[in-house]
Amino acid sequence: MDIANATERIAAQGELVRRIKDEVGKVIVGQEKLVDRLILALVTNGHILLEGVPGLAKTLSVNTLAKALGLDFKRISFTPDLLPADVVGTLIYSPKTGEFSPKKGPVFTNLLLADEINRAPAKVQSALLESMQEKQVTIGETTYKLPEPFLVLATQNPIEQEGTYPLPEAQVDRFMFKCLIDTPDRADERRIMERFASNAKAPEAKAIATPEDIANLRAALKEVYCDEKVGDYILDIVFATREPKKTKGLEGLAEQIQVGASPRATLALNLAARANALVRGRAYATPQDVKEIVHDVLRHRILLTYEAEAENVTSDMIIDKILSVVPVP
Predict the structure, then answer these.
(1) CA angle, corner 242, sides to 238 and 243, nearest 5?
(2) What is the DSSP string of 281-292?
(3) Annotation: CATH topology of 3-197+209-215
(4) Are 184 and 143 in contact (CB under 8 A)?
(5) Rounded distance between C-alpha atoms, residue 86 and residue 89, angstroms
(6) Looking at the domain covering 224-325, what would its CATH class be?
(7) What are phi and psi of 20, to 5 degrees?
(8) Exposed/middle/buried for 216, CB within 10 Å: 0-12, 13-18, 19+?
(9) For the chain, what are the domain ranges?
(10) The pTM of the whole model exceeds 0.70
């Protein structure tokens, strides 16, 4: 592949991403990582699981990005009394005609915010995750395709665990990224306070892109080159989570890792690394691209042992240890 020509074409896509970020930045103060991961998910056709306390502008960020891209946005607040039909839709009977007609649920959108997904029972979670995987919904005997692009951003509250239904590991694995959202720093929080305390009209994002632009970004992703050495680096990291005893310096992790990352993690890591290069205007992925996104891709795919949890070891610590030992090409 001609890297020079591909770089020229991809540079234009990188410029589009910068304009989108600038437009979102008119409304959102800070949260650059969240916006960056949202764009990566749209490019790679993946989904995001967010973990953070309330009040961190998760809903506003998704809504603002939807406006900047000209996409439809909907939100579902997951509660224990929610039913699968409340998410995907159902058939409505009409007494006048004696026929059933489909009523599509809020899942039929481009950007869907599943607020506190772990507060709904397993049936509701499964209905949403099936839609995420298949990109379609069956109502009655008819199957309907979901709009393109389709991205689910699900949130979890890491503090309140009472009355929740934790997602099974196999279902969590379907999320491409799991991002930990932290509170803003002092400077950003001052800017937020001053903006909301003023009498000026709150800024709004304008549509500067279209769904076709997202389709072009996805097409450009196919042109991003991943060298065999970078691919081996990805495999070394993933296999170190499964067979740490075979990697010198990681033997101790065997007592801390119960289940390592799945092959879906390898594919996600490769896709995300190439997408990370794309949004920065490069036609090739580097080991640094892998390092930048590896925590978000792997942290929810490593199941720790009871001993590790008792010692307050986290999956991020495991990933840090692997990165410090696995040689960088």
Answers:
(1) 110
(2) T-SEE-HHHHHH
(3) Rossmann fold (3.40.50)
(4) no
(5) 6
(6) mainly alpha
(7) -65, -45
(8) middle
(9) 3-197+209-215, 224-325
(10) yes
